[in-house]
Design goal:
Blueprint (H helix, E strand, L loop, with lengths): L1 H22 L5 H47 L26 E6 L3 E4 L4 E4 L10 E5 L1 E3 L3 E11 L6 H4 L13 E7 L13 E5 L3 E4 L2 E4 L11 E7 L9 E6 L2 E2 L4 E2 L10 E7 L1 E6 L23 E3 L10 E8 L5 H11 L3 E4 L1 H10 L24 H4 L2 H9 L6 E4 L2 H4 L2 H9 L6 E8 L5 H31 L13 H7 L6 H10 L5 H4 L13 H7 L14 E4 L4 H18 L13
Parallel strand pairs: 18-20, 18-21, 19-20, 21-22
Antiparallel strand pairs: 1-4, 2-3, 3-16, 4-15, 5-17, 6-11, 6-16, 7-8, 7-15, 8-9, 9-10, 11-12, 12-13, 12-14
């Protein structure tokens, strides 16, 4: 419209000038001056008229542009109205039995709570800078709507490893230097958010985490010092956002409320934090760091009926136990430990396989994948990260562990069978805070263990059947079936006669339903491992030195999990005699007489 106004003005001026040239007759010398002044006057009037038209065109264009902007704004999606309302006054009795803070028994080895367990620091050297630190609060929420906050105090930037330097240059993907996850877990769940079905939360990049799934729900800038994150858990059935979890940053909502998984509804959920290369200030109330659009109570100001305090897991006598499982290679030691840890979650496992799992939960890339391993006892790391590959982190863990007041399981199949190695491990826990217990896992296992083994065998077979169905589906199922040509009028009949296509889920369920255990598998006491507990070479070099531990070695107690001392000793003697007949002797040397 602006251009059109300018064109009209120019056209009017041009027309006026042309008319002037055509209509003016040849003037005499006496009339020439007056005629020229008259013509100049008429031209000026027409030019003024053209300018007026130009201004009118500009005004019209401005009004049109303003109307277009208003129309565009009206089409933009309106910011959804906050459905959460201010928390009403609650006259019920408040939580007074404890101060809400981090539970020192529910932290990873590298997490360092301080200042009343409300400041979270972490070890940041010797390989720990690559691993997530985790912590869980000592009070859980079972009803109502409550908020907890985390303020970033500092961001640490450790020196880049060769693994990090090669990222993006044909090497492994670059792991995030700083990482933060906030959410809720049950009291006995994994401390790692998103690692299993018993936890839910968000990460600092705006993803929703649950049951090993990571769904992007918003995009957030990287956190900086003083950034405040808040997580609201809404379990109020009267609220429009009942059974949801919401994320806030510096007091502003950053994503819609996310629904809680069905399996978490009705359970007590504890605030949980995962972090890497950060120092955090946890706020459980009663005063917020960053005000939300609505008033929301915090756990410290909660009604006592809405929360549950974690059970006191301080052992009788005040001493924490350190267990040393002693079992024969490939005879269920790791399966026994898995079941024991499930029943006793207060114990933390110290082993190479636990460290490997920790690295996987921290998102560290492993070139050969996490299924590959040399053996179960010493799977090998081979990350391309010096501090992890040269076992620096393992030595640091063993120097830190005696300082922590927690219960541990030292899981080493080979070393726990060797008296000299047991003596070395015992010296690390010489202090008065620990009770050292050897647990002998030998002999005929009990019925409940056999049932668990058979259940795992069935699960393994079902998983293999499902994998085979998926493989065939990729090879054949994705190919579209050709439509058969039918005569006019017979198409409906053909459709009725045609069997419905089977979906992938249906095919997997059908294959799993057909899986059963054979008679031989029903009599199996130990699962046949795909990866041996020890390499055959290592077993051949050490099995003749294996012994059953005794209390004289320095243990406070020797327990027998499956059979008593006499039957365990007899079983071990039979196993050793069989190995001498069948096992290759790796360290055999010719004697002087033979030479």
């Amino acid at each position: 419209q602006v251009v059109r106004g300018e064109v009209r003005a120019a056209s009017s001026l041009s027309t006026a000038m042309a008319s002037k040239d055509e209509e003016m007759p040849a003037a005499t010398p006496d009339e020439s001056k007056e005629d020229k002044e008259s013509a100049r006057s008429e031209g000026d009037e027409k030019a003024d008229s053209a300018k007026v038209e130009e201004k009118n065109g500009d005004a019209d264009a401005a009004e049109s542009t303003k109307a277009a902007e208003e129309e565009s704004r009206s089409k933009e999606p309106a910011t959804p109205k906050e459905q959460e309302e201010d928390a009403p006054e609650d006259s019920r009795a408040k939580l007074t039995s404890c101060t809400v803070a981090v539970n020192p028994l529910d932290v990873t080895i590298n997490a360092m709570p301080t200042c009343g367990n409300k400041i979270l620091m972490s070890l940041g050297d010797g390989g720990f800078q690559h691993l997530l630190a985790c912590a869980r609060a000592n009070v859980g929420i079972k009803a109502g709507r409550y908020l907890f906050e985390v303020r970033v105090v500092e961001l640490r930037s450790p020196a880049m490893s060769e693994h990090d330097k090669s990222a993006g240059k044909g090497g492994p993907p670059m792991p995030p230097r700083h990482l933060l996850k906030l959410g809720f877990t049950t009291s006995e769940a994994s401390l790692f958010l998103g690692d299993g079905a018993d936890g839910v939360g968000f990460d600092g990049e705006g993803s929703f985490l649950t049951d090993k799934k990571r769904d992007k729900v918003t995009k957030l800038p990287r956190p900086t010092s003083a950034t405040v994150f808040g997580v609201v858990l809404n379990l109020d059935p009267k609220s429009p956002n009942a059974n949801t979890i919401s994320l806030f940053r510096d007091g502003a909502r950053v994503c819609p409320p996310q629904p809680l998984p069905e399996n978490l509804k009705g359970k007590v959920l504890y605030p949980t934090v995962n972090y890497k290369n950060m120092t955090l200030h946890l706020n459980f109330g009663p005063t917020v760091f960053a005000a939300l659009p609505f008033k929301c109570l915090m756990p410290q100001d909660a009604a006592a009926a809405d929360v549950e305090v974690a059970k006191d897991r301080t052992p009788t006598g005040g001493k924490h136990e350190v267990l040393f499982p002693v079992g024969l290679p490939d005879e269920g030691t790791f399966d026994w430990l898995d079941g024991y840890l499930q029943e006793h979650p207060q114990y933390s496992e110290l082993s190479d396989r636990a460290l490997l799992k920790w690295a996987q939960q921290s998102g560290i890339y492993r070139p050969k994948g996490y299924l590959w391993r040399h053996c179960n006892d010493r799977p090998g790391f081979e990350f391309g990260i010096r501090e992890l590959d040269d076992l620096s982190i393992k030595r640091l863990i063993h120097s830190v562990v005696p300082l922590l007041r927690k219960s541990f399981v030292v899981m080493e199949v080979r070393n726990n069978l060797l008296a000299a190695e047991r003596a070395k491990a015992l010296r690390a826990f010489d202090g008065p805070d620990f009770k050292k217990v050897a647990v002998v896992v030998m002999g005929e296992p009990p019925a409940n263990y056999k049932e668990a083994v058979q259940s795992k065998l069935l699960e393994d077979k079902k998983e293999k059947a499902a994998s085979e169905v998926r493989r065939k589906w990729v090879l054949e199922g994705k190919k579209p079936k050709e439509k058969l040509e039918v005569a006019d009028g017979a198409e409906d009949a053909a459709e009725e006669a045609k069997e419905p296509e089977e979906t992938l889920e249906e095919a997997i369920k059908k294959a799993e339903a057909e899986v059963t255990l054979t008679e031989e598998e029903l009599q199996t006491a130990f699962r046949k491992p795909e990866t041996h507990d020890l390499t055959q070479k290592e077993l051949g070099q050490t099995y003749t030195s294996f012994t059953i531990p005794t209390q004289e070695e320095g243990f406070d107690e020797v327990r027998f999990a499956w059979a008593d001392a006499g039957r365990s000793a007899a079983y071990f003697k039979e196993w050793l005699a069989e190995k001498k007949l069948t096992q290759r002797v790796e360290d055999l040397q010719p004697g002087s007489w033979f030479k």
